[in-house]
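Re: [ENG-882] Designed sequences occasionally contain unexpected residues at chain ends

Forwarding the minimal case from QA. Structure tokens:
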């Protein structure tokens, strides 16, 4: 299940860093904790996009100039989505970095028809390798064409699907067909222009800073339909609950894919 949360921007021109997933992660975690439902305090089966809107690049980051900005939140759990939305819409307004935002409305995206071959793009960087404190492994570069790249993503996906409790062991064992095939033409174009498709990003766990290498690229995924659906709703790779690994359909028209979404709203706080 994927929803778009639409906020009204009260101070047009305000700035967020280019890579602001850690700011969004802190906000969403704060919303979850503020609701005090122990079911979701450590719930990891979700992901989210960066903040989308009309932006202009400056030396200090992304300046937002649109009246409305959007955040995509995705999870296999409708109950979790409704819980987060309810908590967000309790606030009349709040600050996100330098942005002053008011919750405006929500939309739900129509799910695609899942097949054993899907083409995705990354709308937040995907992280194939787990990191450790002050360790080098999370920052190691892996060529996306190498089998190791796909193998890491397969292992991460199977562990997360098993931990989710949505699939039994026999189903998990049947999901052994899995191959990530990057768009080589896209990668070569970036290489020719000396542009990057992999960067080092920071994330925080229990106030400890970790560094990971995230990749942003289009790819085809060959996997069972159930695996495709899980990845679409829950992200691909590691640290999805920190805003990494959210994917979307390649060549999809976002305008045609959503309708208004209604959920129980609580009384606003100021």
């Amino acid at each position: 299940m994927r929803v778009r949360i639409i906020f009204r921007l009260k101070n047009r021109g305000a700035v967020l860093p280019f890579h602001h997933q850690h700011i969004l992660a802190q906000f969403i975690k704060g919303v979850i904790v503020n609701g005090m439902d122990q079911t979701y305090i450590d719930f990891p089966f979700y992901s989210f996009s960066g903040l989308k809107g009309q932006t202009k690049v400056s030396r200090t980051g992304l300046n937002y100039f649109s009246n409305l900005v959007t955040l995509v939140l995705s999870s296999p759990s409708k109950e979790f989505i409704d819980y987060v939305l309810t908590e967000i819409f309790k606030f009349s307004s709040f600050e996100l970095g330098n942005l002053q935002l008011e919750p405006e409305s929500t939309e739900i995206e129509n799910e695609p028809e899942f097949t054993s071959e899907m083409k995705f793009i990354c709308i937040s960087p995907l992280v194939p390798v787990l990191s450790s404190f002050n360790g080098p492994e999370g920052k190691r570069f892996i060529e996306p064409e190498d089998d190791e790249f796909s193998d890491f993503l397969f292992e991460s996906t199977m562990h997360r699907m098993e931990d989710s409790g949505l699939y039994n062991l026999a189903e998990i064992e049947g999901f052994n067909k899995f191959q990530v095939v990057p768009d080589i033409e896209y990668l070569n174009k970036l290489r020719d222009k000396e542009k990057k498709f992999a960067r080092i990003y920071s994330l925080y766990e229990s106030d400890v800073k970790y560094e990971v290498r995230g990749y942003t690229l289009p790819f085809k995924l060959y996997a069972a339909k159930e695996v495709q659906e899980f990845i679409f709703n829950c992200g691909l790779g590691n640290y999805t609950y920190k805003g990494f690994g959210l994917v979307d359909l390649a060549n999809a028209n976002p305008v045609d894919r959503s309708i208004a979404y209604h959920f129980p709203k609580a009384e606003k706080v100021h």
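QA comment: On inspection the terminal residues look reasonable. The first strand starts at residue 2 and ends at 9. Proposing we downgrade this to a documentation issue.
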